[in-house]
């Protein structure tokens, strides 16, 4: 609340404090006035200083925000330009394709070789960029199309094959088609590969795109499928195009016709396979493959504040719909322009990397409370209020496609908790284990299935390891170091475990200052400190205690203004970082126990905290829906990402760095986890 | 903090289990989140899990597709609880097939070709598959509006989910009863699928559960 009063005029507060109305600060500092007592003045100066510090940190936050905003807008503009160019190019291309088709159609229908070389663009479809020499332009366009088709691997032959097919359809020329069996073969082969001719594919694909766009309010000529295509045919091929749409995200749209590998053929898409009762779940197998296709990245927030911008613009319930409609196009703008966001860094030289959303992990039915990366692999575990944990292999689906934003299907679902799972810790490298703590008061040890496991393998009870049941209330925090596990629970204790030992509980850490009649404040979070010789535990009442793990006695007590939600030890420095309910992140000197730095880091309670393995950057998440990345040296925000939606008044619940690989992740009350690269 | 008057509906880390999600109800009209329907359903269940009528009373002007979808999400989520209990007792050695009465053997549809999975695998695979489908960005990209074609997919999920209840009922009765006593989930599910005619009544093979009102009968008729 102090924060909000910063803007008050100094004079008012001084007056009420010292009893004299003084408006000029210099007056007080020179202290000529007899009414002033030295302690009063000192107090005032101290007070003022604290306020200025606070103000300063707020300004810094604001500045970082504005910088991010500028970067976002710049990126957006560039993205829009790219989008525009891309669309213009598509329109041109389709026009050419259309004209060519019409020419052929005309030729076939009237049997005249007419105009083959000099079909003029029909008057009702003027070229997008009118030039005096239409003929030259048409040739150029034909050249372009040819070039595209050659890139795909289909040359003029195919075009001729196509015309043969049209003739057959029209019942015009059985004789011609019989002439060249080669063509026939090609034709079949081609049908197998593509389901249709490139031109028609293009047209229909575009038509599909047009539909999607119209939904989003952008209308791009959707009438192309009237060009001699049967409706059923079009419908049947839609499935195909959905994945085509996906394929084309990072490249020119036609290029990916060559991605039409047989295994992508429509029957395998499965969505139309109607097998009485079993159809739906059969599709599930294919979902990982096809999910990202249906218009693509949905509510993904590709970069920085982009998601926030979109969500804010779309507003409320419609937020889902809008980016979805744009789908791949939205993606295009972003993937084209990664460097535009570098400006976001207040400290460009030191940290040029900008994180972009890449994977959306959707499979939980309720808020994701915690996540932890695998110590070495591109895999992570999430823990949710839906009582389950899930294992995700980020590489599992990557090979299947080359698009930019991906949905990942979980590799395994861990079921054993009987209440929401609240916290998570990963074991040592090569131990292939992780630990989870739940509202049910248990801590569970899990043996991670191999990254090659199939989600629909038979159930293996050996995945469940030992269960630690000593806590008598919800377990809210777990930290693991060298085979020892540190837990903090709402029962007011923190405990140290050797999880797989015969007697796993090594010791219980209690606040001795609290005696019998009073219930101890719940422990909120704990982390190892001082090279694992000590444990830092924060409590709901704002206390922070440092325990010596040898003696189990506390040796340092710190009282914070506001209860902390997270505590993390710096990997190399004697420094603790805590995330607080009052929007602050605070830094504590481990030696003196003094607050080394405090900053207003978010617009709402700070809930998640992670340090990168080198201790250079800090990641924070908050109920204000944003994830922020901080330069630990300058304590400035280098990137802000709006990542999750709110459920009730909760939003982001956890953030994490991968210990080795360039991944960061956020977990949200909206049931999603997102991974950024 | 700045506004002590405003209720913050969140679980602060360190909350005791008994205080989890214990905040004053929020009127549905005031929920402005995209997850409002889920919030509303969970809030009503928390108030009284036995009050099926209240839980399944759809707010006015609510999109029925979304309403059904969110309820099915909630069912699948709570069914994790039953699956956890079954894991300890339903072994592939004893329950080699997914059966309820001996009349049918259900094939697990989670595989490329439907397979005779043991009951526990059927249960897990079905729930995992449902989680994937219901979270699919393709079929359910939004939680505020759902295509009619996607709503149609809820039916087959419901049929399979019901088999989990029926297997537990006929083969692991103690587990079923304990779970049902706590959650009223099967009763709620039956009420749900009958109220919205998602599953035909012949498939609902479980006897009416210890209840004075024959749910399936009354609801089914009034709706039909
Ligand atoms: Zn069984
Ligand atoms: Zn199966």
TrEMBL record, chain A:
Main localization of the protein described in the UniProt heading: cytoplasm
MF terms in GO: calmodulin binding
CDD domains (alphabetical): WD40
InterPro entries: Striatin_N, WD40/YVTN_repeat-like_dom_sf, WD40_PAC1, WD40_repeat_CS, WD40_repeat_dom_sf, WD40_rpt, WD_repeat_striatin
Keywords, comma-separated and alphabetical: Calmodulin-binding, Coiled coil, Cytoplasm, Phosphoprotein, Repeat, WD repeat
Region: Disordered, residue numbers: 1-26, 113-136, 177-196
Family: Belongs to the WD repeat striatin family.
Keyword check for NADP: no
Localization per Swiss-Prot or TrEMBL: Cytoplasm
Domain Striatin N-terminal: 38-159
Biased composition (Basic and acidic residues): 186-195
Name of the molecule in the record: Striatin-3
GO cellular component terms listed in the entry, alphabetical order: cytoplasm
Source species taxonomy: Eukaryota, Metazoa, Ecdysozoa, Arthropoda, Hexapoda
Start and stop residues of the WD repeats: 361-402, 414-448, 468-497, 567-598, 599-640
UniProtKB/TrEMBL annotation, chain B:
PANTHER family, alphabetized: MPS ONE BINDER KINASE ACTIVATOR-LIKE MOB
Annotated source species: Papilio xuthus
GO molecular function annotation: kinase activity
Gene3D superfamilies: MOB kinase activator
Record has Disulfide bond as a keyword: no
Record: residues binding Zn(2+): 90, 95, 167, 172
Protein name in the entry: MOB kinase activator-like 4
InterPro entries reported in the protein's UniProt record: MOB_kinase_act_fam, MOB_kinase_act_sf
Keyword Kinase: yes
One Pfam family recorded for the sequence: Mob1_phocein
Keywords of this entry: Kinase, Metal-binding, Transferase, Zinc
